[in-house]
Fold this protein.
Amino acid sequence: MGLSLCLIGNSHVAAVKLAWSNRAPAVLPGFAIDFFSAGVRLMEHMELEGTTFVCKDDELREKIAFTSGGLESIDLTKYDAFVVIGAGFGLDVSGVCDGYDLVSPTRAPEGTLISRSFLTATIEANLESSLAMSIADKIKSVCDKPILLCAAPYLSERILSEEQFRGQMRYEDFDFLNTVVAAAKEAGARISARHKLPLIWQKEETVGVPGFTKASYGLNPARFDMKISAPLEFDRRHGNEDYGYLMLMAMLREVHELTDGRVLANAPAEKKLA
Amino acid sequence: MKSPYTDLPPERFWRSGVSETHPLLVQNLYKKKFDIGRGDKIATAGSCFAQHVANHLRDNGFSVMDVEPPPEILSEEVAKKFGYKIYSARYGNIYTVRQLLQLAHDADKGAVDENDVWEKDGRFYDALRPNIESDGFESVHETIALRRQHLASVKDLFAEMDVFIFTLGLTEAWINKRTGRVYPTAPGTIAGNYDPEIYEFHNFSVDEIVADFTEFSKLVRAANRKCQFILTVSPVPLTATAADEHVLLATTYSKSVLRAAAGALAKRSSRIDYFPSYEIIASPWSKGFFYEPNMRSVSPAGVEAVMRVFFSEHAGRGPKQSGLAKRPAARPKPAVKELSWKERKERQEAAKAEAEAKREAWKQRKETAKVTAAAKAASRSEQKQTPKAADGKAKTWKRRKQAEKAAPSKTEAWKERKQAAKAAAGTTETWKDRKQAAKKTKAEKTAEDAICEDLILEAFAPKKK
């Protein structure tokens, strides 16, 4: 019997969806994914009623219906596994360290010093209070199927050339950046263990400067012929289809493991990216 | 016959001042020596009881300084776990005056001693504030770097504060025999290792405490002439004593010494005030009501009672808040004999009648005021119609207006208060700056939201064949 996977998240779902549509890997017969995606602000209007996520906002309902192919609510009993993508669960190095710095033996502090333990606690508190955790906890409260957390991609490394980052030595200090990433992973691992939810971070090959996504895996709005009225030269937060493919494969492998091999048709060899 | 006690007010007698007055309706227990305005920069420190003071001051609109704020994205709970948002700087509990004096000297010189780093299970603790990082620091280097930063912040704090509220907590302390450094906790409790060759117990005397605080205040005032001090004694008993006696005796000794020292300091200087939080909580008056069942922690009701007395005198120079208004004076109780049930009933009836009469009188006054207001309004409209006749009054009105103009307006006073508060918070950011930054952030957010929306549309739109 095929496995039915429910994939919920914010705009980071899009990269995975593009990969699923354009480069679907070989999966077992009957395997299907339902995607549910909307912005975090809208997703906050999603409430659990019994075993169903119900949209308490018209715009959200519209988005959920659009991304799922017509479903206006999420009946959790229909699915064998869940993946929660992004939705505030991720590491934003520049956000976490805005005005703060870690002790470095090689450079002067660029902001108020905080301890490594305090940094980890800060990140942990942020992850814990994310919408992703709230969604995962709600699912967990009504069903015992596997739930996988999938962190949002790091910011694009291209932002490091922006004026606000230029001249800040800590963004050139790989020890500092590696420490922040390690703190985030430590915080994520603690949460994962506490909630008994497996967690995957973005693939190492997509990471350029530690804590930042390689430009080649970042979204280029022009490539998708997007009509964006806002004055942004490039997107800072989203992965592209190549990124989405790697994440899709990582999460399918993980769900495959969690469901005793009910997802992938054969041992997947990652497709060479164009 | 007359005695020196004959004409004294009721609060000078135990019966009328204490035993016949409800502790929540206390009167004249505390008279401030100096004003604290809402714009005055207040710093707090001391033993754990001092935490409550800062919280309540902040909640009541006073400018409590925080020179080491945590990242804004952090929850209050996590911040407090790491020693942020508890006092005006991240110094943790300062139990003894010697510890406070040592901090002031260290801050003044930027002095950090590596001997004051304690190790436990591969983690490192700042022995002078071991509670601020419950899991310790990663390295000696990190511990020292954060201590240096802390001292620089404390130096700024002591130079900037207008009022320093310090709660004296303990007389007992542990001292490094070689360096003379005093610690807030015994070595071996949170971290470190107790070695009698290195550390010794010391129980401070009144004279030592008075001398230490005098030196501290001189040091502060050398850089900050305007600073004034409020001392309180923590009503929280000792958790344990290293003195060779019962903990109850040690507590009584410790609190007595602290109270005597605080009293002596306040008597000597017009710039040092004593606030009686200890008496409110710990005296027989409150019958232990303000303690939690462990007879040690102070209950929220106790803290409320303390702060109510504080705010009855220090309501700030701004408008008083309704919740802080003085409570009505306790009705003096008959001092001669207990009343019988009948007499009490009669008095109650009389009080009822009196209250009814007061209500009636109030109603009448209200009616009269209404009639007077109507008459005034009619007269004003008449004056408008005959401007010449009203010329004299108009001139007076003009003069009043001009005088009002000359005096600082309410808006200006508000601006001054705002600026003072801003200075206390240590920001030079203007309203315009904030608005522009918000605008920029909003534009960026809108742009990012647009990308999110477009991305979802792009990814999920039906494919063109």
User: Anything to note?
Assistant: The helical segments of chain A are 13-22, 40-43, 58-68, 93-96, 116-128, 131-142, 174-195, 241-258. Chain A has eight helices and twelve strands. The radius of gyration of chain A is 19 Å. Residues 224-231, 269-274 of chain A have pLDDT under 50 and may be disordered.
